[in-house]
Protein backbone atom coordinates (compact mmCIF):
# COMPACT_ATOMS: atom_id res chain seq x y z
CA UNK A 1 0.00 0.00 0.00
CA UNK A 2 1.33 3.43 -0.85
CA UNK A 3 1.65 5.87 2.02
CA UNK A 4 -1.01 8.10 0.46
CA UNK A 5 -3.61 5.38 0.62
CA UNK A 6 -2.98 5.07 4.34
CA UNK A 7 -4.03 8.68 4.89
CA UNK A 8 -7.68 8.84 5.86
CA UNK A 9 -9.81 11.48 4.15
CA UNK A 10 -13.11 12.83 5.46
CA UNK A 11 -15.68 14.54 3.25
CA UNK A 12 -18.33 16.65 4.99
CA UNK A 13 -21.52 17.68 3.22
CA UNK A 14 -25.20 17.35 4.02
CA UNK A 15 -26.14 16.07 0.57
CA UNK A 16 -26.02 12.27 0.64
CA UNK A 17 -25.65 11.98 -3.15
CA UNK A 18 -22.67 14.24 -3.18
CA UNK A 19 -21.07 12.32 -0.34
CA UNK A 20 -21.49 9.07 -2.15
CA UNK A 21 -20.08 10.49 -5.35
CA UNK A 22 -17.04 11.97 -3.64
CA UNK A 23 -16.23 8.80 -1.72
CA UNK A 24 -16.57 6.73 -4.91
CA UNK A 25 -14.21 8.99 -6.83
CA UNK A 26 -11.55 8.96 -4.12
CA UNK A 27 -11.82 5.23 -3.50
CA UNK A 28 -11.51 4.58 -7.23
CA UNK A 29 -7.87 5.63 -6.97
CA UNK A 30 -7.22 3.66 -3.80
CA UNK A 31 -7.61 6.57 -1.40
CA UNK A 32 -9.14 5.88 1.98
CA UNK A 33 -12.21 8.14 2.09
CA UNK A 34 -15.36 8.37 4.12
CA UNK A 35 -18.15 10.94 4.31
CA UNK A 36 -20.18 12.41 7.14
CA UNK A 37 -23.38 14.37 6.77
CA UNK A 38 -23.14 16.16 10.11
CA UNK A 39 -20.29 18.58 10.87
CA UNK A 40 -21.15 18.43 14.57
CA UNK A 41 -20.56 14.71 14.60
CA UNK A 42 -17.41 15.05 12.49
CA UNK A 43 -15.53 17.65 14.54
CA UNK A 44 -14.76 15.48 17.61
CA UNK A 45 -13.34 12.77 15.32
CA UNK A 46 -11.23 15.31 13.48
CA UNK A 47 -10.00 16.73 16.78
CA UNK A 48 -8.91 13.23 17.79
CA UNK A 49 -6.64 13.22 14.75
CA UNK A 50 -8.50 10.48 12.86
CA UNK A 51 -8.05 12.15 9.48
CA UNK A 52 -5.14 13.33 7.40
CA UNK A 53 -7.33 15.54 5.24
CA UNK A 54 -10.79 17.08 5.50
CA UNK A 55 -12.79 18.14 2.47
CA UNK A 56 -15.80 20.29 3.15
CA UNK A 57 -18.54 21.98 1.19
CA UNK A 58 -19.37 25.62 1.84
CA UNK A 59 -23.14 25.64 2.11
CA UNK A 60 -24.21 23.12 4.72
CA UNK A 61 -27.35 23.58 6.77
CA UNK A 62 -25.95 22.76 10.19
CA UNK A 63 -22.78 24.88 9.98
CA UNK A 64 -21.32 26.53 6.92
CA UNK A 65 -17.88 25.57 5.62
CA UNK A 66 -16.16 28.55 7.25
CA UNK A 67 -17.72 27.79 10.61
CA UNK A 68 -16.61 24.19 10.24
CA UNK A 69 -13.01 25.30 9.65
CA UNK A 70 -13.11 27.62 12.65
CA UNK A 71 -14.48 24.86 14.88
CA UNK A 72 -11.86 22.44 13.66
CA UNK A 73 -9.05 24.91 14.41
CA UNK A 74 -10.72 25.84 17.69
CA UNK A 75 -10.61 22.19 18.67
CA UNK A 76 -6.84 22.35 18.23
CA UNK A 77 -6.59 20.42 14.96
CA UNK A 78 -4.27 21.58 12.16
CA UNK A 79 -5.54 19.02 9.67
CA UNK A 80 -5.32 20.34 6.09
CA UNK A 81 -8.71 21.32 4.70
CA UNK A 82 -9.90 21.54 1.12
CA UNK A 83 -13.05 23.48 0.40
CA UNK A 84 -15.15 22.45 -2.60
CA UNK A 85 -18.08 24.66 -3.44
CA UNK A 86 -20.66 25.29 -6.11
CA UNK A 87 -21.38 28.67 -4.54
CA UNK A 88 -17.91 30.18 -4.80
CA UNK A 89 -17.51 33.93 -5.02
CA UNK A 90 -14.29 35.90 -4.94
CA UNK A 91 -15.16 36.93 -1.40
CA UNK A 92 -15.54 33.33 -0.26
CA UNK A 93 -12.25 32.40 -1.93
CA UNK A 94 -10.50 35.20 -0.02
CA UNK A 95 -12.14 34.16 3.21
CA UNK A 96 -11.11 30.54 2.63
CA UNK A 97 -7.51 31.65 2.00
CA UNK A 98 -7.58 33.76 5.15
CA UNK A 99 -8.67 30.75 7.15
CA UNK A 100 -5.69 28.90 5.75
CA UNK A 101 -7.42 26.22 3.65
CA UNK A 102 -4.99 24.01 1.80
CA UNK A 103 -6.99 24.27 -1.43
CA UNK A 104 -10.20 25.81 -2.70
CA UNK A 105 -12.10 24.30 -5.64
CA UNK A 106 -15.17 25.62 -7.38
CA UNK A 107 -17.56 23.22 -9.05
CA UNK A 108 -17.76 21.74 -11.54
CA UNK A 109 -14.42 20.06 -10.84
CA UNK A 110 -13.19 17.38 -13.23
CA UNK A 111 -12.56 14.07 -11.47
CA UNK A 112 -8.91 13.99 -12.47
CA UNK A 113 -8.38 17.52 -11.24
CA UNK A 114 -10.00 16.73 -7.91
CA UNK A 115 -7.85 13.65 -7.41
CA UNK A 116 -4.69 15.52 -8.34
CA UNK A 117 -5.40 18.34 -5.89
CA UNK A 118 -6.30 15.92 -3.09
CA UNK A 119 -3.11 13.95 -3.65
CA UNK A 120 -1.04 17.09 -3.71
CA UNK A 121 -2.34 18.20 -0.33
CA UNK A 122 -1.89 14.72 1.13
CA UNK A 123 1.69 14.60 -0.16
CA UNK A 124 2.52 18.00 1.26
CA UNK A 125 1.40 16.77 4.63
CA UNK A 126 3.15 13.46 4.73
CA UNK A 127 5.38 14.12 7.74
CA UNK A 128 8.49 12.54 6.24
CA UNK A 129 8.19 14.31 2.92
CA UNK A 130 7.22 17.77 4.03
CA UNK A 131 9.37 20.54 5.41
CA UNK A 132 6.30 22.58 6.25
CA UNK A 133 4.57 22.51 9.62
CA UNK A 134 4.92 19.25 11.45
CA UNK A 135 2.53 18.06 14.09
CA UNK A 136 3.10 15.36 16.63
CA UNK A 137 0.40 14.97 19.27
CA UNK A 138 -0.04 18.58 20.40
CA UNK A 139 3.43 19.64 19.31
CA UNK A 140 3.51 21.88 16.26
CA UNK A 141 6.58 23.19 14.50
CA UNK A 142 7.70 24.47 11.13
CA UNK A 143 11.27 25.41 11.96
CA UNK A 144 14.04 23.16 10.61
CA UNK A 145 15.85 23.34 13.96
CA UNK A 146 13.07 21.15 15.35
CA UNK A 147 13.57 18.44 12.73
CA UNK A 148 15.99 16.53 14.88
CA UNK A 149 13.54 16.62 17.80
CA UNK A 150 10.77 15.14 15.64
CA UNK A 151 13.14 12.55 14.18
CA UNK A 152 14.31 11.51 17.64
CA UNK A 153 10.77 11.11 18.90
CA UNK A 154 10.01 8.85 15.95
CA UNK A 155 13.20 6.87 16.37
CA UNK A 156 12.60 6.19 20.04
CA UNK A 157 8.87 5.51 19.59
CA UNK A 158 9.28 1.78 19.63
CA UNK A 159 11.93 1.67 22.36
CA UNK A 160 11.49 1.61 26.10
CA UNK A 161 14.45 3.86 26.83
CA UNK A 162 14.30 6.57 29.42
CA UNK A 163 14.32 10.05 28.00
CA UNK A 164 15.65 13.26 29.48
CA UNK A 165 14.27 16.48 27.99
CA UNK A 166 16.30 19.65 28.40
CA UNK A 167 14.88 23.05 27.60
CA UNK A 168 14.13 26.50 28.89
CA UNK A 169 10.96 27.27 30.73
CA UNK A 170 7.91 27.35 28.43
CA UNK A 171 9.78 25.74 25.52
CA UNK A 172 7.33 22.85 25.40
CA UNK A 173 8.95 20.09 27.47
CA UNK A 174 5.63 18.83 28.68
CA UNK A 175 4.14 18.84 25.19
CA UNK A 176 7.15 16.87 24.00
CA UNK A 177 6.83 14.35 26.82
CA UNK A 178 3.21 13.83 25.79
CA UNK A 179 4.24 13.37 22.16
CA UNK A 180 6.76 10.70 23.18
CA UNK A 181 4.06 8.86 25.09
CA UNK A 182 1.55 9.19 22.24
CA UNK A 183 4.03 7.74 19.76
CA UNK A 184 5.01 4.85 21.97
CA UNK A 185 3.50 1.41 22.37
CA UNK A 186 2.27 2.59 25.75
CA UNK A 187 -0.03 5.22 24.31
CA UNK A 188 -3.20 3.52 25.54
CA UNK A 189 -1.80 3.30 29.08
CA UNK A 190 -1.79 6.27 31.48
CA UNK A 191 0.44 9.31 31.09
CA UNK A 192 1.13 10.57 34.59
CA UNK A 193 2.90 13.81 35.27
CA UNK A 194 4.60 14.99 38.45
CA UNK A 195 6.00 18.47 38.75
CA UNK A 196 8.78 17.95 41.28
CA UNK A 197 9.10 21.70 41.88
CA UNK A 198 5.42 22.23 42.66
CA UNK A 199 5.13 19.66 45.47
CA UNK A 200 6.73 20.39 48.87
CA UNK A 201 9.78 18.20 49.41
CA UNK A 202 8.28 16.45 52.46
CA UNK A 203 5.20 15.36 50.48
CA UNK A 204 6.91 14.40 47.26
CA UNK A 205 7.98 10.93 48.32
CA UNK A 206 4.44 9.91 49.20
CA UNK A 207 3.19 11.59 46.02
CA UNK A 208 5.57 9.49 43.95
CA UNK A 209 5.41 6.18 45.74
CA UNK A 210 2.18 6.40 47.77
CA UNK A 211 1.81 5.65 51.47
CA UNK A 212 0.23 3.15 53.79
CA UNK A 213 -2.37 4.11 56.37
CA UNK A 214 -0.74 5.76 59.39
CA UNK A 215 2.60 6.19 57.62
CA UNK A 216 2.79 9.74 58.94
CA UNK A 217 0.55 12.24 60.69
CA UNK A 218 -2.37 12.91 58.42
CA UNK A 219 -2.01 9.65 56.46
CA UNK A 220 -5.46 8.45 57.43
CA UNK A 221 -5.85 6.06 54.50
CA UNK A 222 -3.63 4.16 52.18
CA UNK A 223 -2.95 6.09 48.99
CA UNK A 224 -1.30 4.93 45.82
CA UNK A 225 1.42 7.10 44.35
CA UNK A 226 2.09 8.30 40.82
CA UNK A 227 4.42 5.43 39.94
CA UNK A 228 1.63 3.00 40.68
CA UNK A 229 -0.95 5.18 38.91
CA UNK A 230 1.23 5.20 35.81
CA UNK A 231 1.08 1.39 35.64
CA UNK A 232 2.48 0.31 32.30
CA UNK A 233 2.25 3.84 30.92
CA UNK A 234 4.64 6.76 31.11
CA UNK A 235 5.60 8.71 34.18
CA UNK A 236 6.82 12.21 33.41
CA UNK A 237 8.94 13.79 36.13
CA UNK A 238 9.06 17.47 35.32
CA UNK A 239 11.64 19.77 36.95
CA UNK A 240 13.69 16.77 37.99
CA UNK A 241 16.56 19.12 38.80
CA UNK A 242 14.62 20.23 41.88
CA UNK A 243 14.60 16.77 43.48
CA UNK A 244 16.13 16.68 46.99
CA UNK A 245 19.26 14.60 47.49
CA UNK A 246 17.34 12.12 49.58
CA UNK A 247 14.72 11.58 46.88
CA UNK A 248 17.41 11.37 44.21
CA UNK A 249 18.77 8.33 46.07
CA UNK A 250 15.32 6.78 46.34
CA UNK A 251 14.61 7.31 42.67
CA UNK A 252 17.97 5.84 41.77
CA UNK A 253 17.05 2.74 43.74
CA UNK A 254 13.74 2.46 41.84
CA UNK A 255 15.50 2.77 38.50
CA UNK A 256 18.12 0.20 39.44
CA UNK A 257 15.85 -2.36 41.03
CA UNK A 258 12.61 -1.70 39.14
CA UNK A 259 10.86 -1.70 42.51
CA UNK A 260 9.59 0.80 45.03
CA UNK A 261 7.91 0.76 48.39
CA UNK A 262 4.99 2.87 49.61
CA UNK A 263 5.94 5.21 52.47
CA UNK A 264 5.39 3.33 55.74
CA UNK A 265 5.08 0.03 53.91
CA UNK A 266 7.41 -2.91 53.66
CA UNK A 267 6.22 -4.64 50.51
CA UNK A 268 8.00 -3.99 47.24
CA UNK A 269 5.89 -2.87 44.31
CA UNK A 270 7.09 -3.44 40.77
CA UNK A 271 7.54 -0.32 38.69
CA UNK A 272 6.62 -0.88 35.04
CA UNK A 273 6.25 2.69 33.87
CA UNK A 274 8.58 4.27 31.37
CA UNK A 275 10.33 7.29 32.80
CA UNK A 276 10.57 10.56 30.92
CA UNK A 277 12.07 13.44 32.84
CA UNK A 278 12.69 17.10 32.13
CA UNK A 279 14.50 20.07 33.53
CA UNK A 280 15.34 23.62 32.64
CA UNK A 281 18.51 23.41 34.72
CA UNK A 282 21.94 22.65 33.39
CA UNK A 283 22.11 19.19 34.95
CA UNK A 284 25.76 18.62 34.07
CA UNK A 285 26.64 21.73 36.02
CA UNK A 286 24.43 20.58 38.89
CA UNK A 287 26.35 17.30 38.88
CA UNK A 288 29.67 19.16 38.87
CA UNK A 289 28.50 21.31 41.77
CA UNK A 290 27.57 18.17 43.69
CA UNK A 291 23.89 19.05 43.77
CA UNK A 292 22.68 16.26 41.51
CA UNK A 293 23.83 12.65 41.73
CA UNK A 294 25.96 11.72 38.76
CA UNK A 295 24.74 8.09 38.84
CA UNK A 296 21.12 9.24 38.69
CA UNK A 297 21.92 11.66 35.89
CA UNK A 298 23.34 8.83 33.76
CA UNK A 299 20.37 6.58 34.47
CA UNK A 300 17.91 9.30 33.42
CA UNK A 301 19.91 10.46 30.46
CA UNK A 302 19.73 7.38 28.25
CA UNK A 303 18.27 9.43 25.41
CA UNK A 304 18.58 13.18 25.69
CA UNK A 305 16.42 15.57 23.70
CA UNK A 306 17.32 19.23 23.75
CA UNK A 307 14.40 21.47 22.94
CA UNK A 308 15.64 24.68 21.32
CA UNK A 309 14.31 27.93 22.82
CA UNK A 310 11.80 29.82 20.67
CA UNK A 311 14.34 32.51 19.74
CA UNK A 312 16.26 29.80 17.89
CA UNK A 313 13.12 28.68 16.04
CA UNK A 314 12.00 31.82 14.18
CA UNK A 315 10.11 29.68 11.68
CA UNK A 316 7.73 28.65 14.46
CA UNK A 317 6.67 32.11 15.56
CA UNK A 318 4.10 32.85 12.87
CA UNK A 319 2.54 29.40 12.82
CA UNK A 320 2.27 29.17 16.58
CA UNK A 321 0.71 32.62 16.89
CA UNK A 322 -1.81 31.64 14.21
CA UNK A 323 -2.50 28.34 15.95
CA UNK A 324 -3.11 29.95 19.34
CA UNK A 325 -5.21 32.81 17.95
CA UNK A 326 -7.47 30.30 16.22
CA UNK A 327 -7.64 28.26 19.38
CA UNK A 328 -8.59 31.15 21.65
CA UNK A 329 -10.82 33.29 19.44
CA UNK A 330 -14.52 33.17 20.36
CA UNK A 331 -16.42 30.74 18.08
CA UNK A 332 -18.45 33.56 16.52
CA UNK A 333 -15.37 35.65 15.73
CA UNK A 334 -12.39 35.62 13.41
CA UNK A 335 -8.83 35.62 14.62
CA UNK A 336 -6.82 38.82 14.15
CA UNK A 337 -4.48 39.19 11.18
CA UNK A 338 -0.84 39.95 11.98
CA UNK A 339 0.58 42.55 9.58
CA UNK A 340 4.11 42.08 8.22
CA UNK A 341 5.69 44.93 10.26
CA UNK A 342 4.27 43.44 13.46
CA UNK A 343 5.43 39.97 12.51
CA UNK A 344 8.87 41.30 11.86
CA UNK A 345 9.05 42.67 15.44
CA UNK A 346 7.66 39.42 16.85
CA UNK A 347 10.29 37.45 14.96
CA UNK A 348 13.09 39.58 16.35
CA UNK A 349 11.87 39.52 19.94
CA UNK A 350 13.76 37.04 22.10
CA UNK A 351 10.76 35.40 23.89
CA UNK A 352 12.36 34.72 27.28
CA UNK A 353 9.17 32.92 28.35
CA UNK A 354 9.24 30.93 25.12
CA UNK A 355 6.02 29.39 23.79
CA UNK A 356 4.06 30.01 26.95
CA UNK A 357 4.77 33.74 26.61
CA UNK A 358 3.81 33.68 22.95
CA UNK A 359 0.65 31.75 23.74
CA UNK A 360 -0.40 34.34 26.34
CA UNK A 361 0.13 37.15 23.85
CA UNK A 362 -1.79 35.35 21.10
CA UNK A 363 -4.66 34.62 23.50
CA UNK A 364 -4.85 38.29 24.48
CA UNK A 365 -4.87 39.38 20.84
CA UNK A 366 -7.50 36.79 19.90
CA UNK A 367 -9.79 38.08 22.62
CA UNK A 368 -9.12 41.83 22.52
CA UNK A 369 -8.58 42.28 18.77
CA UNK A 370 -10.70 39.57 17.15
CA UNK A 371 -11.03 40.13 13.40
CA UNK A 372 -8.70 43.17 13.44
CA UNK A 373 -5.43 43.80 11.69
CA UNK A 374 -2.54 43.79 14.14
CA UNK A 375 0.09 46.44 13.50
CA UNK A 376 3.15 47.24 15.57
CA UNK A 377 1.19 49.56 17.88
CA UNK A 378 -1.11 46.72 18.87
CA UNK A 379 1.72 44.65 20.30
CA UNK A 380 2.62 44.69 24.01
CA UNK A 381 5.01 47.57 24.72
CA UNK A 382 7.80 45.35 26.07
CA UNK A 383 7.80 43.40 22.83
CA UNK A 384 7.90 46.56 20.72
CA UNK A 385 10.82 47.92 22.79
CA UNK A 386 12.85 44.73 22.78
CA UNK A 387 11.81 43.54 19.31
CA UNK A 388 13.08 46.78 17.84
CA UNK A 389 16.36 46.88 19.73
CA UNK A 390 17.07 43.17 19.47
CA UNK A 391 17.75 43.49 15.76
CA UNK A 392 20.88 41.56 15.16
CA UNK A 393 20.23 40.61 11.61
CA UNK A 394 19.88 43.94 9.82
CA UNK A 395 22.45 44.12 7.07
CA UNK A 396 22.63 47.88 7.33
CA UNK A 397 24.49 47.96 10.63
CA UNK A 398 27.16 45.65 9.32
CA UNK A 399 30.54 46.85 8.13
CA UNK A 400 30.67 48.31 4.64
CA UNK A 401 29.39 45.83 2.13
CA UNK A 402 28.68 46.20 -1.56
CA UNK A 403 25.19 47.44 -2.44
CA UNK A 404 24.46 44.21 -4.28
CA UNK A 405 25.18 42.10 -1.20
CA UNK A 406 23.11 44.37 1.03
CA UNK A 407 20.20 44.22 -1.41
CA UNK A 408 20.42 40.43 -1.58
CA UNK A 409 20.42 40.16 2.18
CA UNK A 410 17.45 42.46 2.45
CA UNK A 411 15.51 40.58 -0.24
CA UNK A 412 16.10 37.26 1.46
CA UNK A 413 15.12 38.52 4.89
CA UNK A 414 12.03 40.31 3.56
CA UNK A 415 10.83 37.34 1.50
CA UNK A 416 11.53 34.86 4.28
CA UNK A 417 9.37 36.80 6.73
CA UNK A 418 6.66 37.41 4.17
CA UNK A 419 6.44 33.74 3.23
CA UNK A 420 6.22 32.85 6.88
CA UNK A 421 3.44 35.35 7.38
CA UNK A 422 1.37 34.04 4.49
CA UNK A 423 2.19 30.47 5.48
CA UNK A 424 3.71 29.63 2.15
CA UNK A 425 0.92 31.05 0.01
CA UNK A 426 3.10 32.65 -2.67
CA UNK A 427 0.19 34.22 -4.55
CA UNK A 428 -0.80 36.06 -1.40
CA UNK A 429 2.86 36.98 -0.82
CA UNK A 430 3.10 38.49 -4.31
CA UNK A 431 -0.06 40.46 -3.66
CA UNK A 432 1.22 41.95 -0.40
CA UNK A 433 4.59 42.70 -1.97
CA UNK A 434 2.71 44.36 -4.85
CA UNK A 435 4.80 42.36 -7.30
CA UNK A 436 4.03 40.49 -10.42
CA UNK A 437 3.61 36.80 -9.49
CA UNK A 438 6.21 35.50 -11.91
CA UNK A 439 8.76 38.05 -10.70
CA UNK A 440 7.95 37.18 -7.09
CA UNK A 441 8.35 33.42 -7.71
CA UNK A 442 11.69 34.06 -9.43
CA UNK A 443 13.00 35.99 -6.43
CA UNK A 444 11.75 33.35 -4.01
CA UNK A 445 13.51 30.68 -6.04
CA UNK A 446 16.70 32.71 -6.35
CA UNK A 447 16.98 32.84 -2.57
CA UNK A 448 16.27 29.15 -2.19
CA UNK A 449 13.08 29.84 -0.26
CA UNK A 450 10.86 27.43 -2.15
CA UNK A 451 9.86 24.10 -0.78
CA UNK A 452 7.07 21.72 -1.54
CA UNK A 453 5.26 23.09 1.46
CA UNK A 454 5.35 26.56 0.02
CA UNK A 455 3.64 25.52 -3.18
CA UNK A 456 0.30 26.28 -1.67
CA UNK A 457 -2.91 25.62 -3.50
CA UNK A 458 -3.42 29.25 -4.26
CA UNK A 459 -0.09 29.65 -6.01
N1 LIG B 1 5.34 23.01 19.74
C1 LIG B 1 4.21 23.42 20.38
N2 LIG B 1 3.04 23.43 19.72
C2 LIG B 1 1.92 23.86 20.33
N3 LIG B 1 1.86 24.27 21.61
C3 LIG B 1 2.98 24.27 22.31
C4 LIG B 1 4.22 23.83 21.74
N4 LIG B 1 5.17 23.92 22.67
C5 LIG B 1 4.57 24.41 23.77
N5 LIG B 1 3.25 24.60 23.58
C6 LIG B 1 2.31 25.18 24.55
O1 LIG B 1 3.03 26.16 25.29
C7 LIG B 1 2.78 26.06 26.68
C8 LIG B 1 4.08 25.77 27.41
O2 LIG B 1 4.54 24.48 27.06
P1 LIG B 1 5.03 23.41 28.15
O3 LIG B 1 4.18 23.48 29.39
O4 LIG B 1 5.16 22.11 27.46
O5 LIG B 1 6.46 24.04 28.46
P2 LIG B 1 7.56 23.56 29.50
O6 LIG B 1 8.83 23.57 28.77
O7 LIG B 1 7.11 22.31 30.14
O8 LIG B 1 7.54 24.76 30.51
P3 LIG B 1 8.04 24.78 32.06
O9 LIG B 1 9.52 24.63 32.04
O10 LIG B 1 7.64 26.14 32.51
O11 LIG B 1 7.34 23.67 32.75
C9 LIG B 1 1.74 24.98 26.85
O12 LIG B 1 0.48 25.58 26.94
C10 LIG B 1 1.85 24.15 25.59
O13 LIG B 1 0.63 23.58 25.26
MG1 LIG C 1 6.57 21.94 32.18
TrEMBL record:
<dbReference type="GO" id="GO:0005524">
    <property type="term" value="F:ATP binding"/>
</dbReference>
<dbReference type="InterPro" id="IPR058031">
    <property type="entry name" value="AAA_lid_NorR"/>
</dbReference>
<dbReference type="InterPro" id="IPR002078">
    <property type="entry name" value="Sigma_54_int"/>
</dbReference>
<dbReference type="InterPro" id="IPR025944">
    <property type="entry name" value="Sigma_54_int_dom_CS"/>
</dbReference>
<keyword id="KW-0804">Transcription</keyword>
<feature type="domain" description="Response regulatory">
    <location>
        <begin position="8"/>
        <end position="122"/>
    </location>
</feature>
<keyword id="KW-0805">Transcription regulation</keyword>
<dbReference type="InterPro" id="IPR003593">
    <property type="entry name" value="AAA+_ATPase"/>
</dbReference>
<dbReference type="InterPro" id="IPR025662">
    <property type="entry name" value="Sigma_54_int_dom_ATP-bd_1"/>
</dbReference>
<dbReference type="GO" id="GO:0000160">
    <property type="term" value="P:phosphorelay signal transduction system"/>
</dbReference>
<dbReference type="Pfam" id="PF00072">
    <property type="entry name" value="Response_reg"/>
</dbReference>
<keyword id="KW-0067">ATP-binding</keyword>
<dbReference type="Pfam" id="PF25601">
    <property type="entry name" value="AAA_lid_14"/>
</dbReference>
<dbReference type="GO" id="GO:0006355">
    <property type="term" value="P:regulation of DNA-templated transcription"/>
</dbReference>
<dbReference type="Pfam" id="PF00158">
    <property type="entry name" value="Sigma54_activat"/>
</dbReference>
<dbReference type="InterPro" id="IPR011006">
    <property type="entry name" value="CheY-like_superfamily"/>
</dbReference>
<dbReference type="InterPro" id="IPR009057">
    <property type="entry name" value="Homeodomain-like_sf"/>
</dbReference>
<dbReference type="InterPro" id="IPR001789">
    <property type="entry name" value="Sig_transdc_resp-reg_receiver"/>
</dbReference>
<protein>
    <submittedName>
        <fullName>Transcriptional regulatory protein ZraR</fullName>
    </submittedName>
</protein>
<feature type="domain" description="Sigma-54 factor interaction">
    <location>
        <begin position="139"/>
        <end position="367"/>
    </location>
</feature>
<keyword id="KW-0547">Nucleotide-binding</keyword>
<dbReference type="InterPro" id="IPR027417">
    <property type="entry name" value="P-loop_NTPase"/>
</dbReference>
Amino acid sequence: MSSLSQQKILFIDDLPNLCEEMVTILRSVDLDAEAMLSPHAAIPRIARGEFALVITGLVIAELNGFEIIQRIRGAGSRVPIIMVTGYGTEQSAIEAARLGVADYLTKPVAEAELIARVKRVLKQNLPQESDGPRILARMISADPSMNSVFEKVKTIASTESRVLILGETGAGKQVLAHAIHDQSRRKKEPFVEVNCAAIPANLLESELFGHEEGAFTGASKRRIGRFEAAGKGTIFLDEIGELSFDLQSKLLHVLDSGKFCRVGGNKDQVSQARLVSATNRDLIKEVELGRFRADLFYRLNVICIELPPLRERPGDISILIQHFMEKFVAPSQKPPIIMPEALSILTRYSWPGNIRELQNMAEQLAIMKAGEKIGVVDLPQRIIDKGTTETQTSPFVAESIPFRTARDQFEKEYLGRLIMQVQGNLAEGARIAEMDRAQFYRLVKKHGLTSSSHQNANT
